[in-house]
Every structure is written in structure tokens, then in C-alpha cells.
Design brief:
Shape: elongated
Number of helices: 25
Structural class: alpha/beta
Number of strands: 22
């Protein structure tokens, strides 16, 4: 079965998730404490043997919980094989394509719903079920002579349905032998019994369970088709040396009392998974450990099996794992790097490796063992942060593992990482948000409508193509020049005033504007672009930090033509805001903060207020005014908020506060940029092309 829709209610922090559609490989993305783990754990309530704890019911819904409500419900599509099995067992029923499962707060059993199918609730003697088979046996025994009947033990047929074929066959053979001994003188009775005993319809594999059509269908689904939700969470790390004496104590349950109760897999479970993948029998090892040749042969075979099972999920250079037996009943886990040319290096104990390596190794061991041990097929795997602590390259290895599992299973997992998101189809990517006021989790099927901060890993993932384009030399050498700016405000101003001026002679259209994350990222970002074929320019303000960036660019073979400082009529400007006439800039400042700080006694800032302050540029002077009003709760002056105000007014065409002088000063900036591009293209194009060819070679 494949889960297609689900809904969770009154479970921990979730009042009502609403109906959510999911695909075969679905990621849940959300900030910490948003409810991702809660959703995954709530789905395990649909397992047959799961128990509901009162502590898991939502405290804020006590009134609603006085009535019976569905805590978890899921709508499942049946596979073609499952539909065929049901048709074979219930030929008189219409084809069943969907099944609903749900569990309520007042019933510990999972219940079933079958849409658009009428099922009989009354007893049906025509059903080939265990109940009817038992009644048939009892009825037959009532027809035989009483002196025989009183000797026959019928407790097997008066009990519950046998658990499996083996128990059924054993009990039936035992009963038949008993019956034949008792009725050995009655050939007619034995003949009738043989007809019942050997009737193909009365074989266990053909028997249903239930005395009504609905009960029989539900019992068959419960025993043969009920979906399994398998939840994976934390695992402990494997270290280099394993004390087999301590391990065997754990296996026997001889654990010391601890002051803290930890709900996670312990070290014994992790070691058990390691030995499971290696197919290593500890009892067999104990028998041969005193014979070195046999011990080495056993461990070599186990090591090779372990290595072959781990490497498919291991990214980077392959590894080889050696299990070595040492005096003191110690098992050592030795790791070696295997290179493409066949050489082996860096052989040593696992505990010599980095913490990230040990965690990655342990996770893959645990996850691979748990999935293989369960013989997972047509299961629904629920994974909570499967890639925590992993390098992006290893995360991609885990994502490949999940994709492979999704072929025969459904995989739902929670993640924070953009490298673990590989399907952006609605239903395969779900966003979880927490309404802090009501402490409720909300799930977005249309994830693009979620909060921007929640979407951060998704946006990074969506931009992966843009990142890859930076290192693609063919894209770089055939692209328009780029100009890297220090702040988001610089990028917004350049694009907005380009649109505002509408001057084809100085347009920014021949450029791509790239906003650095912060000043520290300008240098490496510029080098990345330049080294991959882009004609790269950098626009800087006149602060000391920016001057240091300029010097570093020069030392990294950037020409002076490629570094552009803000200037006007030969005079250096501290920021791009200084291209805006002071009176023009103060208009949005006063408009923004008059409303924002009305309760804090804000009064309009005048040009005299700015001119009376000492500082390097208008922004520096405004910040000093805000510092003077720190005790008035003015907070920090946010120039980006003013930038957004100006750019929004340009978009709306409400620009009466911008003077012609401001326009002219921005034109001077565009002319400066255009002139530098022309100088660079005249002087450097041939040099760059030669360098590109050398780098490519």
C-alpha cells in the first residue's frame, strides 16, 4: 500500500493538520520545534500493534477528546498485486482500489473504511473462513456415534484462528491421528473425515478469518496487507574497539542502572547491527577464536561482506572495513581508504577518524542493517533528520540510499538540509510551521506560501542550478559581465534606478548584479566568478574594510579597472545612499519612522540635523542620531528598510520626492560602471581568454 493522504488530530502539538497529500518520497521541512517529528510519530499510530499513550494526546483539546475523534487517519492506494489478492479471496466484491485506516482516542485497534463498497455485517455461512471451517468440523463430529464423540478433544477448533500455516498443519495432523485411532473400527466415519481433511478449500492458505463479509475482509487486510510504518531516529556512534564481554552482557540484558533514561538505540544495538551486516555469528567466533587460521578466515569473510554492503551508500573514495580479533576478547574495527588505482592508505582504527566520519559510518551501518533486517518491502519508512552531522557529499549518498528504498517502499523524512531535498513536486515536499500563539503545527502542501525563514533550505536547494552555473566555464565565458556588490541594498538601488531613469545609453541591462552575503564574502565570490570565465567587476564603498577588499583583489590578479568605488565628480562617497540628495533621502526616512516610532516621540529629521553631526557620509550621521535616542527605544537605524521604501515607490511610480539632481547623480554612477567595462574589454579580453584556455587544460 502507498499512503496518499493523511490527517492528524489532537496529537501532541497538532490540533488538526488538515488533509495532506504525500508522494512516494516526501520531505518535511521546517524550523526546530515546528512539529516535523510529531507528524512522523503520529503516523506510527496506524501500525497494528502501536499503543496510544494518554501523554501523547493534546492537552489543549480536552473538551474535544471527551468524544471519539480520529487521531490519525490515512488513505492508501493498493498496488496491482494487492488488488489481485483481494479479488482472489473475495471474488464477489467489486474491485477495491483504496482503503482508509484510522485510529481513535477511544479504540486501541486500527479501523478500516472501504469507500463505495457495501459489505455485509451479518453472519455468512458461505464464507470459506476459519470460523465456518470450525463449525463444519463440530457439526460433523455431532453426527458420529456418541461413544466416539466423547473421546475427541475439540479445543483446537473452539479457539482462535491459528497464527500460521505451521501451527495449523501440526494441530490438524495431531487431531487427524487422534481421530483415526478413536474411529479405527468405523470405516464410513473415517471416509467422511478424509473428505473434509483433504479438501483443498480447507487448507490454511485458503481460509479467511471472520464470520461476516466485513469482518473477514478486515481480518485478511490486517494479517496480509496492513501497511507497516517503520520509524528511524537516533543512533549511537561505533568506536574503534568493541569489548565483546560487555557486548554479551548487554545482549543478555545485564545492564547497570542509570540515573537517566534515554530513549534511543544503545551501543549494543549499534554493534548488533554491525555484526548483522557482516553476517558474523558471535557464538561461532567464540568457538574458533583460539584457532588463529579459522578465526582469520571467519573475520575476513565477514569484513568483505560488511564492506560490500556499506560502499553503495558511501560517497567519495571507497573504504574497506576489517574486523580484527584481539586478546582480551576485543573486536577492532579498522578502516582503510581504497583509491581508484587500487592503492590502500590511511589504515587505522575507526576511533582515529574524525567525528563526522564516525557518525556517517555509524548511521549507514545502523540504517542499512535496520532496513535489511526488516526485509522492508512495501513499508512506509519514517526518518527523522537522516542527514544530521553529515557533509553535503555524504548527504547526497544518503539521498541516493533513500531513492533506492523508495523503489519498493514509501519514504517520508524530516530534514533541514537543502542537499536532502531532491523533489520539488507538491506532495513530495511539505513545509511544517508552528503557530507560536496557538502552539499549533501547520502543514503547507503549497510550500511556496510558507514563511520565508521556513523556506530557507528549500530556496537554497532551488538555487543549486545557479550555484552549479558559477563553476561551469562555458556558461561563464559566454555570459554578460557581472558586478558584485557588498549589500542587498546596493543591488536593489542599481536595479530600481536603472528602471527609474529609463536611459538606454547608461542602462545596467548588459550586466548581471550579484549581491554578496556580506563584505567578507565579496572577495571569494569575485574570485570564484573570475576563475570560471566571468567578466567580473566589484562595486565597493569607501570604508576601510572595503579598501582592504580592494587590496586583496589586486593581490589576486584583479586589475584596478575591475574594482569600482562610489564617487561623484572625483569625490569619494561612503555609500550608494550618498548618490541620493539628502532632502530626497530624508523623505522616506521620516515617512517610515514617523509611523514606526510615533509612540517613542519621533520628530522629523531635517538637513540641519544631519549637517550638525560629524560622520563619514549621511548613513553614518543618521546612525549617530539613532544612537543618541537609544534610551527612547528608537532601536538601530535600518537603511535597508529605507531602501525598500524607495524601490517600492519607484515600482508604483510615486517618485515625486526624488529630484532631478538625484537622477543625475545616479547617471554618473552608471556612466562610471559603463566606462570601466569598456576599458576592461579593450585591454583584458585576450588575456582572460588565454587564461581560461590554460585553466581548462
Amino acid at each position: 500500500m502507498r499512503l496518499r493522504k493523511f490527517r492528524v488530530r489532537a496529537y501532541r502539538c497538532i490540533h488538526d493538520s488538515g488533509e495532506i497529500t504525500v508522494g512516494d518520497l516526501a520531505a518535511f521541512v521546517g524550523r526546530n520545534e515546528s512539529g516535523k517529528t510529531t507528524i512522523l510519530q503520529a503516523l506510527t499510530l496506524l501500525n497494528k500493534d502501536e499503543r496510544i499513550s494518554e501523554l501523547d494526546l493534546c492537552d489543549e483539546m480536552n473538551e474535544e477528546l471527551k468524544n471519539e475523534i480520529k487521531l490519525a487517519e490515512g488513505e492508501f492506494d493498493l498496488t496491482q498485486n494487492e488488488k489481485s489478492m483481494l479479488k482472489e479471496k473475495f471474488p464477489n466484491l467489486p474491485e477495491i482500489k483504496k482503503i482508509k485506516l484510522f485510529r481513535t482516542n477511544q479504540n486501541q485497534k486500527v479501523q478500516y473504511e472501504f469507500e463505495d463498497i457495501e459489505l455485509g455485517e451479518n453472519e455468512n455461512r458461505e464464507l470459506n473462513s476459519w470460523e465456518n471451517f470450525s463449525k463444519q468440523i463440530i457439526s460433523f463430529l455431532d453426527t458420529i456415534p456418541n461413544h466416539l464423540r466423547i473421546q475427541i478433544d475439540t479445543s483446537f477448533f473452539e479457539g482462535v484462528v491459528p497464527k500460521n500455516q505451521e501451527i495449523f498443519d501440526s494441530k490438524m495432523a495431531e487431531f487427524s491421528n487422534q481421530f483415526q485411532v478413536i474411529a479405527i473400527q468405523e470405516s464410513k466415519v473415517l471416509e467422511e473425515w478424509e473428505k473434509i481433511y483433504k479438501n483443498p478449500e480447507n487448507q490454511f492458505s485458503n481460509l479467511l478469518s471472520g464470520d461476516s463479509e466485513r469482518t473477514a475482509l478486515q481480518n485478511f487486510i490486517a494479517s496480509e496487507l496492513h501497511p507497516r510504518f517503520v520509524y528511524f531516529s537516533d543512533y549511537k556512534k561505533i568506536y574503534g574497539n568493541i569489548n565483546l564481554n560487555e557486548y554479551m552482557k548487554e545482549e543478555r540484558g545485564e545492564r547497570e542502572e542509570s540515573i537517566e533514561f534515554i530513549e534511543e538505540f544503545d551501543k549494543a544495538e549499534t554493534v548488533r547491527n554491525l555484526f548483522y551486516l557482516a553476517e558474523l555469528d558471535i557464538k561461532e567466533l567464540d568457538e574458533v577464536k583460539s584457532t588463529p587460521s579459522k578465526c582469520i578466515k571467519l573475520l575476513n569473510a565477514a569484513s568483505n561482506r560488511l564492506t560490500s554492503k556499506l560502499n553503495p551508500a558511501w560517497k567519495g573514495d571507497p573504504i574497506h572495513v576489517d574486523l580484527r580479533y584481539n586478546p582480551g576478547n576485543i573486536m577492532s574495527v579498522v578502516i582503510s581508504d581504497v583509491h581508484k588505482d587500487g592503492t590502500i592508505t590511511n589504515t587505522g582504527l575507526l576511533n582515529r577518524r574524525a567525528e563526522g566520519f564516525k557518525w556517517t559510518f555509524s548511521f549507514i551501518v545502523n540504517f542499512a542493517a535496520e532496513t535489511q533486517r526488516s526485509e522492508l518491502k512495501e513499508a512506509i519508512l519514517l526518518l527523522d533528520e537522516p542527514a544530521r552531522n553529515l557533509h553535503p557529499t555524504q548527504q547526497m549518498g544518503i539521498s541516493d540510499l533513500l531513492k533506492n528504498l523508495a523503489g519498493s517502499n514509501q519514504v517520508l523524512y524530516a530534514t533541514h538540509s537543502p542537499f536532502m531535498i531532491f523533489d520539488y513536486t507538491p506532495g513530495n515536499l511539505l513545509v511544517v510551521e508552528l503557530d507560536k500563539r496557538k502552539h499549533l503545527s501547520r502543514i503547507f502542501y503549497d510550500y511556496w506560501n510558507a514563511d520565508d525563514k521556513t523556506l530557507t533550505p528549500i530556496l537554497y536547494g532551488l538555487s543549486r542550478g545557479q550555484v552549479e552555473s558559477i563553476v561551469d566555464r562555458e556558461i561563464g565565458t559566454n555570459s554578460r559581465p557581472i558586478i558584485i556588490v557588498e549589500t542587498m541594498s546596493d543591488a536593489m538601488y542599481l536595479n530600481a534606478f536603472d528602471k527609474f531613469l529609463q536611459d538606454p545609453n547608461i542602462s545596467m541591462n548588459p550586466l548581471n548584479v550579484i549581491a554578496a552575503y556580506n563584505k567578507n564574502s565579496v572577495l571569494p565570490l569575485a574570485i570564484f566568478y573570475r576563475n570560471h570565465g566571468y567578466k567580473t567587476f566589484v562595486l565597493l564603498d569607501n570604508t576601510e574594510e572595503s579598501k582592504q577588499i580592494s587590496s586583496q583583489l589586486t593581490s589576486n590578479e584583479f586589475s584596478s579597472v575591475q574594482t569600482i568605488f562610489f564617487e561623484k565628480e572625483g569625490k569619494k562617497l561612503e555609500s550608494i545612499e550618498d548618490y541620493i540628495v539628502l532632502e530626497d533621502y530624508l523623505h522616506p526616512v521620516n515617512q517610515t519612522y514617523e509611523i514606526k516610532l510615533r509612540q517613542e516621540g519621533f520628530s522629523n529629521i531635517s538637513t540641519k540635523d544631519i549637517e550638525s553631526k560629524e560622520g563619514r557620509g549621511n548613513l553614518d550621521k543618521l546612525r549617530k542620531i539613532w544612537q543618541e535616542h537609544r534610551d527612547d527605544d528608537w532601536g538601530e537605524f535600518d537603511n535597508e528598510e529605507i531602501t525598500r521604501y524607495i524601490c517600492e515607490k519607484i515600482t508604483l511610480g510615486e517618485t515625486s520626492f526624488l529630484s532631478d539632481k538625484t537622477k543625475d547623480q545616479f547617471r554618473s554612477l552608471y556612466r562610471l560602471i559603463a566606462e570601466r567595462i569598456r576599458q576592461y574589454q579593450n585591454v583584458m579580453t585576450k588575456t582572460d581568454l588565454d587564461k581560461f584556455q590554460r585553466n581548462k587544460a
